[in-house]
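Model the whole thing, not chain by chain.
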Amino acid sequence: MGNGSPPVVVELGNRSYCVHIGDGLLAQTGQIARENALSGRAAIVSDSRVAPLYLSAVQDSLAQAGYVFSAHVVPSGEQSKSLEMVKTLCEQFAHDGVDRHSFVVALGGGVIGDLAGFVAAIYYRGIPVIQLPTTLMAQVDSSVGGKTGVNLNAGKNLVGAFHQPHAVIADTLTLTSLSRRDFNEGVAEVIKYGAISDPKLLGELSQGITSIAQLVRQCVRIKAGFVTEDERETSGRRALLNFGHTIGHAIEAAAGYGTLLHGEAIALGMLAAAEISSKRVGFPAEEAARLRTMIQQYELPTRLPSGLDPQVVLRRVFVDKKFQDGNISFVVCSRLGNAFSTKEVTREDLAAAIVGLQTGKT
Amino acid sequence: MGNGSPPVVVELGNRSYCVHIGDGLLAQTGQIARENALSGRAAIVSDSRVAPLYLSAVQDSLAQAGYVFSAHVVPSGEQSKSLEMVKTLCEQFAHDGVDRHSFVVALGGGVIGDLAGFVAAIYYRGIPVIQLPTTLMAQVDSSVGGKTGVNLNAGKNLVGAFHQPHAVIADTLTLTSLSRRDFNEGVAEVIKYGAISDPKLLGELSQGITSIAQLVRQCVRIKAGFVTEDERETSGRRALLNFGHTIGHAIEAAAGYGTLLHGEAIALGMLAAAEISSKRVGFPAEEAARLRTMIQQYELPTRLPSGLDPQVVLRRVFVDKKFQDGNISFVVCSRLGNAFSTKEVTREDLAAAIVGLQTGKT
């Protein structure tokens, strides 16, 4: 396991790429770039939290492989995911000689992956990017699949592009520097994979994580499968990855960004989705209980933050989703591992599940 | 003629689309949107010069076809092609309820096509766009082929995306409102098509333009062929459309944007490319003379603006192009209608041709 294991391949025809997973892989960045026939200069994008920890390792690796590079460090946090920062980075790129033959190296968590990936998507109408995710959330989810983007004042991720990376390098050693809370928010997405696709993952999580590289690998395999089947989320297959996200996103926004971590909001969203699944498609009570136990075990929330009005959350669901012809597409599970979309979910179902999150009943 | 003729089809598999060419076609915008199965709301983007002339016709047509729409008018001119304006438009879109099911209608010249096309490429990771070009330059060139983008301080079109339109509607009546200078800059691109692909076009131009719709149609057919063969300019085929552009862009930038119109700079670039073609690949003197006659007939410049130092232009060529291994790829013609790229062009060739533009020798 780890460094010796073969990479997971995301099969997308001539856009296929490898996800390398293991301890210490940041030191292979330059070599992996060479294997991907990237020959121009590298523009490393990172943030003020990650750069002091890992930038030098990446720079050393690129230098060893003979690359010329520049480093572009943005402030850590969601506020860097803006069109203003896109402009700042693009102007820096141009100033530093980054051109159509260059490539981007995105070193950081989800914010950096989304931001640097988007800049790579539009600079000179698109140059390659290598994703170096340094959070569990980014390693198991956001670095794989090509979704990139930034926020508007009007909402998160409203501007973006599909831009598949040339490679993903998930150095699992970087996860050791995460706070417990930051690590656990990533576990929320692992639980999601368990719920929609592979209940065995939940069994493994319940034992405590023994091999993080193996866990990341299992999640990436699942994600890669969905992306291969539905790269641009047009057939509805990839949309199953949104289990827990409709209500989760609404909670995250209604609570005010920064109150709950994304994964924490998703944990609440999954509990609500489980409640709705029980009511609508016979999701068994014992499986819902299993999901809840996992969420509790990883110290993720099971109740709305105090003071957050469920009606505000409910209204936010409709801002995001817009009931088309009175229905939204909502992801439910009939059993753990069997997720699908339905339009049978009513406003009342949503309201009851969200109110339940306040009382702790959901 | 015009309205009755079938559209030109740009063949790109599932991204294929029609270019409708003829007098009065703006009034068919709504109908053509319906034919393209666009069902959501429309976001019309136009500028302060074009909107007073044509916005109401487009709005009426969309309303007649049952569309809900919003209109977004930006200041006329190149300075609107910025990431700041992209942000402004995206925030307006979100405020006005434009969502993933909506589409953009780009009503204007090259600036609007590039800007609105780029916004369409990135809003919700891409929504459809219909291009309604209102200049000759945009009708024969920029509205077809999917290149979109905006400028940085560091240079023009450094940020962008390939985003093919769902349809192009070239209403040739709109060309009657162009100033003679604005019309003639579009003729520069027509001359280019003649030079690289279809010398008969030059013969027709020399007689004076009798049917503008037919002329646009011939140019769009040529452009469509290049785009079909090489959508993303990777094989080098589409790059032949850059005949005259390497030196033309450098002249445009060195003179200061706004001094020369794009097409005027391209006319100069073509004269320089013809000179280099004569020296390097035996482009016949009588064909070079024919090109020059055409450029003069349409009142396009044949000499550098007074006070513009050829050395400044030359340096600018290298900023844009970067001699890789001492060579740039340069488009030449061995005969009218037969263009190809070569790396045989030297710095001295470029310098001599540009100096020649000052003295009027080139």
